[in-house]
Amino acid sequence: MPAKRKYLPQSSTEKPAIPGSLPLDRAIAVYYRQSSMKQVGNISTDMQQIDLPRYVHSLGWPAHVIILIDEDEGVSGAKRIDERKGMSRLFDLIITGRIGSVAAQAEDRLFRDETQIQVNVFIDACVKNDVRVITPYFKYNFADKHEGPYHRLLFRMRAEQAADFLNSYVRGRLFAAKERMMMQGMWMGGNINLGFMVDNRKQLSSGVPNPNWRKFQPYEPCAEVVVKLFELFISLGGNIRATLQHVFENGPHFPDFDDPEFQRGVPIGFICEKPVRMLKRGNRYAPSRMALVNMMTNVVYIGHWMHKDRIVQWNNHPAIAPEELFFRAFNYLSPYALDGSPNPDYAPSFHRDRSKPEDREQPRPIYKGLVGTYWQGEWRQATAAWAPGMQAYTYTTRRNDLATNQHTLWSRRCDYFDQIITEMLHSKLRATFDPEVWSTVLANTAEDFAAERRLLSHQLQAINQKMQSLLTNFSFVQSQSLLQALEQEHLNYESEQHRLEEKLADLERRQERQDTLIELAKQAETVLATWNNMNLTDQRTVAHAFIKRIVVQPRGTKRVADVEIQWRDDSSDTFIMPYRADKWVLWMPHEVESLTDLINQGAGQVEIAAALPDRNWHAIRIKAYEIIGKRSFHTSPKPIRDEEKYGDYLVRLERDGEKANRTYGNRWRKDELETLEELLNCTATQLEISAALPVRSWEAIRKKILQIRGPGIDIPDSGHLEDGEMVADYFARCPETAATMSLRGEGNSERQRCC
Known about the structure:
By secondary structure, this protein is of the alpha+beta class. It folds into 5 domains: 28-174, Resolvase, N-terminal catalytic domain (Rossmann fold); 196-333, Putative Large Serine Recombinase, Chain B, Domain 2 (Hect, E3 ligase catalytic domain fold, Alpha-Beta Complex), CATH 3.90.1750.20; 435-542; 589-661, no CATH class; 670-754, no CATH class.
């Protein structure tokens, strides 16, 4: 007997596009929105991000002209156009004519607008720019001469229905029912406090309604840990950090919430879920800092029920912690009593600084938001906060720690840190910053202002037109109730008008300030000249305009860190942040580069000091150690003293003459040793050897000869110089020998060439 089932031929379920009915020659934007982050990833996400672009493609748009706008994840459709990042981008595409259509899964994805103000602004923009709105169920053409009015009415109606659903069902019925049950002390989903489980039995086994339905009950494997945590916190004097450290190292620990045995231990009909803000290493769970503070101050642990930071049910469920134990911990942390009044027993383990910024003498941080550290590949931005103990602002970078939830990587005073960065910034502006690059950077900011102004101005224009239309309608209306409705609608539009005008005024103020800063930046010298007269906001704006990021990497104990400034022209400068800053002066990049080149060339002390006239020799030597990477920087001779700069040395040289160049105990350079070897091989005389090594005394030369050739070597024509004399001293004592020595020296050179 043949089967009765019939199979239809496979075909696409999409309706074929009607040629010429859609503006396929213009780009289309696919708009995606979901109201909360909890909804992201559900079936609606797939429908909007996968099915909808596929549907648009089936209508005839090629993939390269389909623009996906997905910035509004977890954003309510009741928000205004300029309050949604994705919708602002979409609106800008419409009013600039860069798209011809908008696709959305449904009208409520675009708007849930009670007042219809935003809907009307959107429709007005679509009409003026001939933009279609497409859903899988309807294709709107607001600008059509015949069907446009109906399409506009239908779109408004469906957007209004979405807003009514949000108000009447979600906010009205669902929220109201949930609120009522929570006010009665019942758990309605979400996190379950540590130590508790929820009795989810609506009826008892006898069929009687369960009076504890959806109420907390202690769960012993966790409840006993909670009690021990209270006891430990009190024994450590209310010290959160010490408590967390002890818990991490010694316990008490909560059970492994991921272990199937844990869930099997939960009684049937009860709910006990893995809590949030828990730290795990191996199989050990411990509360985070926030979870511990919440535990020590949450009255749920003594049986009361809170809702919206207020106790709504006293003695709602069995307690875990005894009241005396709870309040001893509570008084360490809460400045308020259970009724909201000041807590007379509040006794924190430490007091925070209560002074206001305007009462502090130290300048506020300039480079806040730019400074940070890479820790295990992740960027951790430094905080800038007042340190009462130091009476100064400090930059501090911390990392998460499974034991204490925070660990300081480095910390430094903002005042001298900012001074260093400011010097680098000024040096960059004076010497190396490419004007074309930073001019482009600041011009990009102007483009952002233009886009925001375009968005706000178009909305305001649509609002003004609608208000004018309402005023016109007042003269034709006779019904009192209709007049009241029009007045209310006008008030709503008027409120939106004021809001947009204030945002535009604020934009103009920011634009004016930015224009001023752009003009300043075009002339770096002007920025430098006016820096100290700028207020903090302008200094921060300039800093953010030129600097991408300031990366600080801790390096050992003797210096705080290596610091890299990443500029917006894609160059970078590095320097070393010292451990102490009271006697430290910043090394500029060009100085470090110059010293590095001189070291690689084997330059002498005088040449190096002359190239760095603002540095004393001690500072140069320490910097050379850092460049080389070890304490093995040697140069000879060294007539310049540690505390002297090159100018100081010249003054001493002019005063003392050649005596200023005496260098007792200096290391012998390789070229000096080679010269001495050549002279000994050529049997040079005492005076010839001394003349070739003018900064060495004869005593030093003789000792080096004995080290090289051993005792018994004979130096021709000896006896002219005394042990402590240099050749210059001998010429001063015997000037008549100088002319003869010059001839002998020439002969000696010839002899060296022959050798």
